[in-house]
Amino acid sequence: MAIDIKSLNHTQLNDLIQKAQARQDELQKEKVTRVREKVQALLKAEGLSFEDVFGAGASVRGGGKRRGTGSVAPKYRNPADPEQTWSGRGKRPRWFNDALKAGKKEKDMAV
């Protein structure tokens, strides 16, 4: 099926591109499904499970183990209220910005 793309206007060309990309996505998903079925059949034929081969932390969808999001030690402490701390990551807390505006330096608030 040959399409003369020179005869298409802008809208028709964009529509064709979207349809082609959707078809590529479908083909990729079909390929992944076929490969997954082959792997599962091979594992079953060998008498093994996915976890036996790839470990208990691995998932069928791939990726492997995820890092946990643990807490980070505080890097700064509010001089007005020592209970308030900040790790130095993410958006600056209001008390930190207020202290800077009041003339304090970052090193003055360091833990």
TrEMBL record:
**Domain of life assignment:** Bacteria
Region (Disordered): which ranges?
Answer: 59-94
Q: Give the record's keywords alphabetically.
A: Cytoplasm, DNA-binding
Q: Where in the cell is it found?
A: Cytoplasm, Nucleoid
Tell me the ranges covered by the DNA-binding protein H-NS-like C-terminal domain, including all copies: 63-111
Name the Pfam families for this protein.
Histone_HNS (PF00816)
Q: Name one GO molecular function term.
A: DNA binding
Which InterPro entries does this entry report, sorted A to Z? H-NS_C_dom, H-NS_C_dom_sf
The main location is cytoplasm
Q: Which family does it belong to?
A: Belongs to the histone-like protein H-NS family.
Q: What is this protein called?
A: DNA-binding protein
Please name the source species: Dyella acidisoli
